[in-house]
Protein: 3-oxoacyl-[acyl-carrier protein] reductase
Amino acid sequence: MQLEGKVAIVTGGASGMGRAVALGYADEGADVVIADLNQDAAQAVVDELQAKGRRGLAVRFDVTDPQACKDLVARTVDELGHLDLLYNNAGIGLIKPVWDTTPDEWDRIFAVNVKGLFFMAQAACEPMRAQRSGKIINVSSIAGRRGEALVVAYCASKATVISITQSLALALAPYGVNVNAVAPGVVDTPYWKEVDKQFAALQGKQEGEPFRDVAANIPLGRTSVPEDVVPLAVFLAGPGSDYVTGQTYNVEGGMVMS
Ligand SMILES: NC(=O)c1ccc[n+]([C@@H]2O[C@H](COP(=O)([O-])OP(=O)(O)OC[C@H]3O[C@@H](n4cnc5c(N)ncnc54)[C@H](O)[C@@H]3O)[C@@H](O)[C@H]2O)c1
Structure:
């Protein structure tokens, strides 16, 4: 058990990769707070954590609200005793041609994927700085490694996550807090179902076709499932990564290699 006695917050933990990582952390001994817009789905994940013998807390939460981030951290420390791990995962996508992307759409992507992620990390690092230990894992994407014609706002937001990860890592290194990022590829989650629908509408394809087209070009021969990111997420939360900070790791079947 690599995370025995640790307390984690997983934002967007009610679905997809957040849920898989929350369950993976519980398997390694951690208690986990599931913070998500969707309270019912968050509670269902907490029920799964508790069935594994862990403590859990489902919090209805909007990452775009900096005060909600502070309140979430305070409640976690109050009810579970401390905060050791943040899996900073809540995120949304947008498939739009460059010339049709509106200011509101741009702002919404950045409010969730960048501003929310930053202020969540800022809130979480307060107890971590005080206890002089902690691990923050930010969720980027292969979209942060390269541009895509129909994905400009999302790509920019996920590239910014890589930059924020490096700055936070430098700011928090003197306090014994490690900050790293994961960059998943094409993962079969509700997020990609929505992305697939948006691609299909723009490209005149049937729903499901964009997903299959992308899958055909993945060197390891398949798309990803949420569980593919769990071993790396556990490594970055556990003692094996104590000398690792400021890094972004791809988990994407060989699509990008940079
Ligand atoms: N699915 C992919 O192919 C893929 C690839 C690379 C990166 N990512 C990133 O991984 C992360 C998780 O994606 P997923 O595919 O598991 O998605 P998902 O849609 O299955 O889960 C995302 C969760 O985030 C929650 N959420 C959305 N906005 C929120 C907000 N404002 N406040 C709190 N919670 C909010 C949703 O309710 C949902 O439970 C996202 O940051 C996404 O950008 C996904």
Notes: The pocket of nicotinamide-adenine-dinucleotide is lined by residues 11-12, 14-18, 36-38, 61-64, 89-93, 112, 116, 139, 141, 184, 186-187, 189-192 (CB under 6 Å).
